[in-house]
Amino acid sequence: MFDAYCRGVCLYGPNWEQVLSYWKGSLEDKDHVLFMKYEEIIEEPLLQVKRLAEFLNCPFTEEEKETGSVEEIVNLCSLRSLSSLEINKNGKIRVGIDTNFFFRKGEVGDWKNHLTPQMAKTIDEIVESRLRGSGLAFQ
To answer: Is residue 93 classed as helix, strand or coil in its secondary structure?
Structure first.
């Protein structure tokens, strides 16, 4: 999988091309494309859910904020909650891949438990070269 990723051979094409196209879209058409980074969602989930609601033109009311609706949505959309759903434990996507394949720990930095330092360096170099000049950066 590592070699395929580095060559850009993934189920839906090179990851960096997808990320960069959405990044550019978000800069060119802020009304129709919202770009969110996973790290930002993990760091400030309540703020990011509010941001998403505003982007979708359905901001939370003061009452919803006060009664904990935002927190409830964050909880329902958490990796723990989503990974426990029956469909995500035993379902398959169109090409026959088990849906549980898409769930890991959901922790920022967990890649360190799966990649060697050389693998991480290789991916960093590829992504940096593909995103160079775009203004998009990751932690």
So the answer is: coil
